[in-house]
Input
Amino acid sequence: MAETSKKQTFLHGAALLAIATAVVKVIGAFYKLPLNEVIGPEGYAYFTTAYDIYSVLLLISTAGLPVAMSRLISQASSLGHYNQVRRIYNASRILFLALGLFSTLFMLIGCKALAQGLNQPNAWVAIACLAPCALFMGVISTYRGFFQGQGNMRPTSNSQMLEAVFMLVVGLAAAFTIMYFTQDIALAAGGAILGVTVSCLASVIFLRSKQVPEYQQLPQTNEEVAAYGTTIKRLLAIAVPITIGTAGLQLLTVLETGLYMDRLVYLMESGQYMSHMITAEMDAQRSATVLKGIYDMAKTIYNMPCAFIIPITVSVIPAITANLTLNKDADVKATEESAARVTGLLSMPCAVGLSVLAAPVMSLLAGHTGEQLTLGAQLMTIMGLNVFFYAVIQYTTATMQAHGMAHIPVIHTLICGVGRLVVVYILSGNPYVGILAAPIGTALCYLSIGILNLLAIRKFVPQKPRLLTNLLRPGLSALLMGAAVFGVYRLLSSYLSADSRLSAVILCGVPVMVGVVVYFVCVILLKAIKKEDCMLLPKGEKIAKLLHL
Output
């Protein structure tokens, strides 16, 4: 196990997770995009309401502990203390199971009250169907933390792909069958989310089959092992600040939903905003739910590129921790700067592309037309920029967590998160803004957190990475790509309308192909990627030769 793990460098592990993420996102698109067609914006809103509640409890159960587990196992593995690795794993398992069981019972018992509190009373079925996932994810996180702490990302990547397949098959089949026989949108949303629960169960079975033999093969060592109580305290000391920040931000997202839904319902009932949507069959509550469904679909598309940032942060924490443990300051700085370059190379073109091609993207992937497409494009234009802000937050947070300063980004997150609620509350009551208040509030929140985190790194991290230098060239490449994409899109849009799916394919496909070529050329000419980055990737020497680095 140890020998295998050592061969997986930071970017090698990140590449494995990125490949898995690509597969998962493709499968996820085949799941959520048709799902939106089956259950509609209203049903999709119920689906995401359940998932938002689950995400809060999931993050409480798993946000900080995997990071803590990964850090401690990385430290112990670097020193060859494998008995301590066993102790960390067993202590983590106790915590994960307890928190997961609590979260599952909370969702099952309180599903109706939670749905009612968020102005989504029909979402209770989806909440109940998703409840067992909290327990399953606790078990999954224990296994993944064990592997990731030793730098082995392969089991995590394989399990993610397995989850996606089960979610696609079971979720879509259940949603379609229930909708066909009952025409009940709330029940169909519950059936759709049942696919997520089944996928988590499949992942538990798979990871256990991989973890048990690896655990048994750990070498026997003679170091003094910390007591369970001491180990749990060390885990919680790292995990609690991270959990407060991550779960706190997600909780604020749930509260934000309640805020803007109240304001939207009031505006629509008073005839100030989208009042034409209200009919005998569609009251203000359901009309506001449809608007939320459009926003939720835009978030789903926005989350696709964001997911590619997570493998970098998952991989960078144990890599930096291992180098810090061995006092390799030069390697710490090199890893941080490499992570910054890769983060910029991934996030910047995605941010620019989503903002420039917002209308055809929403038409193609969400199937919106007319007024819904106009609103969806406005939402996506704002959210596209958020991709880069999100990437900055993930990178800076991971860097500070690896340096043992997890509490700093937590403070920044909570302060800016509260400010986000204030912004959303004020703007969502403005009939000229309405649902657009949600992505605007998120953008201002993420920008503020990113700036505060960067200032903290500059002040507190001893091995200060040269962030501006490493992000400047990817940024310039992305801007040049954006200009080319915008020019091609404007030319095509003078002849085609994004209202039809076929036109949307052309309006998306042609500019994207041009953008890929322009970005690739700019990255090479401007030397935005370095040879050492390639050498850390699988087949890195061949990649470097291909790119003439």
Observations:
- The chain is about 85% helix and 0% strand.
- Residues 10-62 form the longest helix (53 residues).
- Residues 1-226 form one domain.
